[in-house]
């Protein structure tokens, strides 16, 4: 039973990581094509949630350099949301 749990746990963590990556890429795409402004809350929330999901994935796999960049990604997005409210 624990092998199935480990496999399912890994799959869920992978999906979380892919979703986070997708959100960050989407935010970058939207800003690159002038669909959003960098000060928009949508852009910052995409970055915040994407960063948090990538952080979960990176932590699970012990990818601590990715954890570090995700923490800064989250802090920057959080500060921007706070500043622009």
In terms of topology, how is this protein built?
Blueprint: H1 2-32, H2 41-61, H3 64-83
Helix pairs in contact: 1-2, 2-3
Radius of gyration: 15 Å
> What average pLDDT do the residues reach?
94
Listing every helix as H and every strand as E from the N terminus to the C terminus, the arrangement reads HHH
Strand residues, percent: under 5%
Q: Tell the overall outline.
A: elongated
Helical amount? over 70%
Number of helices: 3
End-to-end Cα distance, whole Å, is 48 Å
Structural class: mainly alpha
Largest sheet: none
- Give start-end ranges of low-pLDDT stretches: none
- The counted number of beta strands is 0
Task: Outline the structure in words.
This protein is mainly alpha-helical and 85 residues long. The relative contact order is 0.15. The mean pLDDT is 94. The longest helix is centred in the first third of the chain and has 31 residues, at 2-32. It contains three helices and no strands.
